[in-house]
Amino acid sequence: MTTTVTAVGGQGSTAPAAVAARLTGVTHHFGEASRPPVLDRIDLTVAPGEFVCLLGASGCGKSTLLSLVAGLDEPVSGTVEVPGGRPALMFQEPALYPWLTAAGNVELALRLRGLARAERREEAQRLLTLVRLEGSGPKRVHELSGGMRQRVALARALAQEGDLLLMDEPFAALDAITRDVLHEELTRIWTETGRAVIFVTHNVREAVRLGQRVVLLSSRPGRVAREWAVDIPQPRRIEDPDVSRLSAEITEDLRQEIARHGH
């Protein structure tokens, strides 16, 4: 059995990481070893600054894979390498602290990094401006719309300063118009920050709109079934013909995977 190896770059390191994340032969299961694995021999490499979308049916292990990359769990076997430091993780729910303001939620991540109070305030305002929430720093969570809350959660994730951002269906609970706006905003922020992103979704068109690469996982156990390079210039729209064509191709493969595994 090979345990997780997570290499974390130090502050004194000047050479850029060769990869943002690398999974090699990763297998994972819950409970007794005799139970079928959730993930089976996953090999996946994410380049620095790359936007990768993970796609698959419910229960195929997408969120489990993110947890392993985030260091929240260790695989039964295989290695997980994240050379750029601990990645930030953003969930479907914003998970904001309701007793803090929007700025206070962002500053909390900065405080954990050890920034002084004046630096925290300045950096929190910069990040809120980056996510188009300038002027909203003093607002409490209950004063924010669902889309605004997710923007605060994104600003808080960016405040963690890792080279890799993990996003677990962050827009799934939002209405179509808000989700469309946040697709545009995420693409802009990704371009401006140069962070690598691993984005989990059930939505094929969302994956094609956002990602440079779409990775399809099979079901029970999760394996890399197929990958697509998305050679469509940004900015993209959900309704673009090229997005529709590639989405139709990926959807057919997804349907075949679901049929093959009986769910």
UniProtKB/TrEMBL annotation:
One of its GO terms (molecular function) is ATP hydrolysis activity. The keyword Nucleotide-binding applies. SMART domains: AAA. Keywords: ATP-binding, Nucleotide-binding, Transport. Transmembrane segments: none annotated. It comes from the Bacteria. InterPro entries: AAA+_ATPase (IPR003593), ABC_transporter-like_ATP-bd (IPR003439), ABC_transporter-like_CS (IPR017871), ABC_transporter_ATP-bind (IPR050166), P-loop_NTPase (IPR027417). Residues 21-246 form the ABC transporter domain. The keyword Ribonucleoprotein does not apply. This is ABC transporter ATP-binding protein. It comes from Cellulomonas terrae.
